[in-house]
Amino acid sequence: QVQLVESGGGLVQPGGSLRLACVASGRMLDHYAVGWFRQAPGKEREGVSGISAFGVGAEWTFDAESVKGRFTISKDRAENKVYLQMNSLKPEDAAVYYCSARRDPHQAVVGDALVAPAQYDTWGQGTLVTVSS
After folding, report:
1. 90-126 confidence digits (pLDDT tens)
2. In this structure, how many other beta carbons lie within 10 angstroms of the beta carbon of residue 80?
3. Which of 68, 50, 69, 70 lies closest to 60 in space, CA to CA?
4. Which letter does DSSP use for residue 57 in this model?
């Protein structure tokens, strides 16, 4: 089984930036889809950004419309980490952010499935992001 630990959350002013990290252990992420999700008080958990398993042709990403152009997901294969670079943060971005993964040896999880919570079965503990002046 893969285990996930998030870090990098904190307090930032509107317009600022944060970089979240998801460290995986127990398994290498080459054959896993990995997604970032968030949950604000009183709201459902929503997908933010996802990155596919590493296939023959490409490693695909998908971003929710609410963060497109501001957030970027990336993977460091050597360190077995997935990052979420968050720029131009808005108050509505404040939430607990979760990293999640599911085994996907055939790279079947692509497109908007990468940000669908039902696709995933392993979750980290979350890291709190607060955006306030």
Report:
1. 999 999 999 999 999 999 999 999 999 999 999 999 9
2. 17
3. 50
4. S
